TrEMBL record:
Name this polypeptide is given: Ribosomal RNA small subunit methyltransferase A
Keywords: Cytoplasm, Methyltransferase, RNA-binding, rRNA processing, S-adenosyl-L-methionine, Transferase
Highest classification ranks of the organism: Bacteria, Bacillati, Actinomycetota, Coriobacteriia, Coriobacteriales
InterPro entries listed in its UniProt record: KsgA/Erm, rRNA_Ade_diMease-like_C, rRNA_Ade_Mease_Trfase_CS, rRNA_Ade_methylase_Trfase_N, rRNA_adenine_dimethylase, SAM-dependent_MTases_sf
EC class name: transferase
GO cellular component entries: cytosol
Function: Specifically dimethylates two adjacent adenosines (A1518 and A1519) in the loop of a conserved hairpin near the 3'-end of 16S rRNA in the 30S particle. May play a critical role in biogenesis of 30S subunits.
Main location group: cytoplasm
Family indicated by similarity: Belongs to the class I-like SAM-binding methyltransferase superfamily. rRNA adenine N(6)-methyltransferase family. RsmA subfamily.
Positions that bind S-adenosyl-L-methionine: 30, 32, 57, 78, 103, 134
Reactions the enzyme catalyzes: adenosine(1518)/adenosine(1519) in 16S rRNA + 4 S-adenosyl-L-methionine = N(6)-dimethyladenosine(1518)/N(6)-dimethyladenosine(1519) in 16S rRNA + 4 S-adenosyl-L-homocysteine + 4 H(+)
Domain Ribosomal RNA adenine methylase transferase N-terminal, chain residue ranges per copy: 37-219
EC number: 2.1.1.182
Amino acid sequence: MPASPLANPTATREMLERFGLATKHRLGQNFLVDDHVIARILDLARLDEDSHVVEVGPGIGTLTLGMLPHAGSVVSIEADHTLEPVLADLAHEFPSFAYVMGDALKVSWESVCAAGVGEGDAKIRVEPNILVANLPYNVAATIILKYLAEHPSLAAAVVMVQAEVADRICAAPGSKAYGAYTAKLNLYGRVTGRFEVPPTCFMPAPHVNSAVVRIERASVADPETGAALGPERLAATAAVTDAAFAQRRKTIRNSMAARGFEKAALDEAFVAADVSPTARAETLACEDFVRLASALAAAEAIPADLPVRFSAGGAGK
Ligand SMILES: C[S@@+](CC[C@H](N)C(=O)[O-])C[C@H]1O[C@@H](n2cnc3c(N)ncnc32)[C@H](O)[C@@H]1O
């Protein structure tokens, strides 16, 4: 039994022809045509009837069809409106499948939950608890961080990304791939699995290597109370992290001062958090930023409206 009936070049070509579709580079449409890769994604996702999947970018439903027999429900978000007839057919065939047309960075979470499962009046609202996707690479990094930061119901993410983005996701402090993106992602989860996927597994083949990573939600403890940090404190810590990385050649003290932090408050916070003011941000771990943000929050020294970036900067296909 194949993991997905569409995960081969012939079935994919026939499906595209049947619906009069052509793949769109602009939308990162590199469809999976390797059944072995679908099987490995399913292994990493460990879906069961309690799994409620949100998938970004179902395309013609290749991965979706692999997941549906194993999951309680799948709701997919697709930006390409020409794919709607394909997804409508799929929803007709599988009551546990629903879809939302739109940009995954813009659709409301409520519309995703409300898409629900079941037929007609029997439809029930379902909040997804896992993100599983072969992501469009130009927005992959942003989607992962934004979804984990904004949707606490997501307990894990199993995502195909450009290998370079996977390197950033997995990077250790001080390494070349480590940056603000990794430190912020570590506020929400930890990588527990990874495997590599060559370009030949896609149609058309992308120009870059890919990798699938599993990110498990992890809570970060408040250094004062030991309790898990809530969404507001996590967002404040992410903003402090961005400020520390804002000017990579500068020390964190100067980088943060340039972002509007009071120097006197910063100096007290560096002592309280046991973080060196002359350190460069790329040498600090997520836990260092948590202690620094905690000390700054206690002193009410975090400027209001400090921005948080979800993107990974230069990484994207
Ligand atoms: C790499 S393809 C994956 C297709 C399919 N899941 C597979 O594995 O073969 C990425 C999909 O994401 C869709 N997409 C691109 N940008 C999107 C966005 N911002 N929001 C939702 N879907 C998007 C594309 O149209 C495409 O269907």
